[in-house]
Amino acid sequence: MESRLNAKELIEKIGRDARELYGNGSMCCSEAVLTVINREFDGGLSEEVAIALSKGFCGGIGDAGCVCGALAGAVMAQSLILGKGPLPVEDEPVRKASKELHDRFSARHGSICCRILSKDRDPNSESKGICLDYVESAANICAHLLLAPASIQENIEQERQEPPMKLNCNTELPNRNAQMHAANSDRQF
After folding, report:
1. Contact 97/152 with Cβ under 8 angstroms?
2. Residue 69 near residue 29, CB atoms below 8 Å
3. pLDDT tens digits along 88-116
4. DSSP 36-57
5. What is the pTM of this model?
6. What DSSP state is assigned to residue 113?
7. Contact (CB, 8 A) for 35 and 26
């Protein structure tokens, strides 16, 4: 991890780097996010292994259009970094961090499903379109949560006071998105 950058600069750099790897065509969405987080947080994987692990998540799991590949790459990266401690890794903190990553991505973009998020993207175009933003966003959110784990606990406490929502992959969240955006308006990531 580059120590000469402050946390905000590092988060922004990670997002830009993932966006660039995806945008220049050298990696798919999930590969770019996992590769950059692994590199910047010393995850211990070679670039080849990071790409191999995340390759199946491209295009919403093998181009099926379900879970956003950028989000899947971010969850894998976050689990890798959080799991680097003494083994065995506790399940609960990793799962809570994964849920927080999911919830922030969903609140920011209104869905986690590739086919919904990319519905306006021309499949015949070589342009990555809106997906560039999702790659950058997923990498930013993941990096922020890794650098500021206290924000996960804050949201867990707030969540205990709110009734849970039942969601599936096809659920869009326009109202929840507005509520979460208002609640987190002071947070950049």
Report:
1. yes
2. yes
3. 678 888 999 999 999 999 999 999 999 99
4. HHHHHTT----HHHHHHHHGGG
5. 0.78
6. B
7. no
